Request: fold
Amino acid sequence: MIRVLLVDDEAMVRAGVRAILANEPEIEVVAEASGGREGVRLAGSHRPDVALVDIRMPGMNGLDAAAEMRRSAPGTAVVILTTFGEEEYVVRALDGGADGFLLKTGDPRELLLGVRAVAEGGAFLSPRVARRVLNSLDHARSTGRLDARERLAGLTDREREVLALLGSGLSNQEIGARLFLVEGTVKGHVSTILKRLGVRNRVEAAVLAYEAGLVGEGRGRDA
Reply:
């Protein structure tokens, strides 16, 4: 069972997200919060697997709430809910170690894919979010698609396969199943990929995979 915390100041948004998740027997919404501080408190008391956090809320905003959750409930994966026009916020959330980004107006299937992916240790980027933030990321400001491809040129064929699936939101276990590798081997590949690409986490690696046009070569899900 994947236990989810909803943190959004808009009751209608919470109701919509809750309705989508309610159709999945393996996902349970264990708590809801209408603000960041309440969300942090509930994350500490409920220890959910996934926290879906609105990026902009009065009082403690989603960025600060997510950062505090990372400290007080490190076992909780944080997915940021965003809208178009908030790329700067997304970049800050990425810097804070968010595990995923979803558009509030996106396809409900992306919500389900994202929750499952981060609950299983993966990272998830709504494709439309990824495209909008690429030019805002540090490595994308001064470089482009060509440079991204050059950075990936140092990877082995197997590492490129792993990165493509990672960029599609698959967890280590799912990547292993797809490539017939044990999970420990996948973890080793991911660690090497992060080091060689000079990125800090799976989400940054996924963004770079998008920028290089790698996602799509090894996609295991429709996103």
